[in-house]
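haha ok so turns out i had the wrong file open the whole time. this is the CORRECT one, sorry everyone. sequence first:
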Amino acid sequence: MFDHLNHIHQQYKQREIGIQLQSFKTVVTKSPKQRYEIEAYNEYLLLTNASVLPIGTRIISDTNSLEITAAQNALEGLEEFSGLIAIELPEKVVTYPIIEFIQIVKE
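then structure:
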């Protein structure tokens, strides 16, 4: 099994980024809302559960963009987002997901 927290600490150590706070952040999506925005300035949000997101979901931030396809739906790695993060669910959502992130606040 992929150890997310160990990977995060190794990556940020290599990038010489200090971690002031580490926690979890969830976004609960509900009908009929299709778009959500999260402010993540001076921090990183790492998506941990891409597999529960409907195909066609888009996550766009100041530093990264991701559209969930069949290939990314099985993603085990972490996608990192920072700045203003917009989450857009596809038009015809059958089940509204709970989106989970690991939140890293920089020193």
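Residues 60 and 70 are 18 Å apart (CA to CA).
again sry for the mixup
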